[in-house]
């Protein structure tokens, strides 16, 4: 019975779930989506959308293949803007694919 007396507080569980656990990537993806207009600018925001984060790679959905080629040149700048807005270096690479966008 002694081992069941220890109570875990919810304030100790939440940081683990969102910052260290399985929901960490979703938490950071939501932060990126909130700041997306600031990160990529008003012109690009309607044509490219952050989709998911896997192994520190951000996957971005693009409306057209022409965007992929030009965005490859801006990859480092986008990664720096993400790190600056989130105040943490969580993205090391970006992968682009054709898919849905806001527009």
Structure description:
This protein has 103 residues and is an alpha+beta fold. The chain has one domain (25-98): GMP Synthetase, Chain A, domain 3. The protein has helices at 10-20, 24-34, 36-40, 42-45, 65-73, 75-86, and strands spanning 48-54, 57-62, 93-98. A three-stranded mixed beta sheet has the order 1-2-3. A hairpin with a 2-residue loop joins strand 1 (48-54) and strand 2. The longest helix is centred in the C-terminal third of the chain and has 12 residues, at 75-86. The model has no long low-confidence stretch (mean pLDDT 84).
| Low-confidence sequence ranges | none
* Rg: 17 Å
CATH superfamily label? K homology (KH) domain
CATH uppermost class: Alpha Beta
Instruction: Write down the overall mean pLDDT.
Output: 84
Q: What is the fold named in CATH at topology level?
A: GMP Synthetase, Chain A, domain 3
SSE order, as H and E? HHHHEEHHE
CATH architecture: 2-Layer Sandwich
| Total of helices | 6
Q: What is the strand arrangement across the widest sheet?
A: 1-2-3
User: Roughly what fraction of the amino acids lie in strands?
Assistant: 15-25%
> What count of domains describes the coordinates?
1
The major sheet is characterized as: 3 strands, mixed
Q: What is the subunit organization of this protein? A: single chain
| Tally of DSSP β-strands | 3
The CA-CA distance between the termini, in Å, is 59 Å
Share of helix, binned: 40-55%
């Amino acid at each position: 019975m002694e081992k069941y007396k220890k109570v875990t507080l919810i304030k100790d569980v939440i940081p683990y779930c969102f910052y260290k656990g399985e929901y960490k990537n979703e938490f950071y993806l939501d932060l990126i989506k909130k700041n997306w207009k600031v990160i990529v600018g008003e012109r690009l925001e309607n044509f490219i959308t952050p989709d998911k984060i896997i192994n520190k790679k951000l996957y971005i959905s693009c409306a057209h293949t022409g965007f992929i080629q030009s965005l490859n040149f801006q990859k480092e700048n986008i990664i720096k803007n993400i790190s600056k807005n989130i105040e943490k270096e969580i993205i090391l690479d970006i992968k682009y694919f054709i898919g849905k966008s806001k527009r």
